[in-house]
Amino acid sequence: MNPSVLTSFGRGMLAHWPLEPDIVYLNHGTVGATPRRVLAVQQALREEMEQQPARFLLRELCGLSGPSDRAVPRLREAASAVARFMGAQGQDLVFVDNATTGVNAVLGSLELKPGDEILITNLAYGAVRNAAAFVAERQGARLVTLELPFPVAEPALYLNRLAQALTPRTRLAILDHITSETALVLPLAEMAACCRAAGVPVLADGAHAPGAIPLDIPRLGVDYYTGNLHKWALAPKGCGFLWVAPERQQGLHPPVISWGLGQGFVQEFDWVGTKDPTPFLAAPAALALMQEWGLEAMQTYNHHLARQALAWLSARWGFEPPAPEAMLGCMVTLPLPAALGTTREDAVRLQYALLYEHRIEAPILSLGGRLWVRISAQVYNSLEDVEALARALGA
Question: CA–CA separation, 155 vs 302, rounded Å?
Answer without folding.
Answer: 21
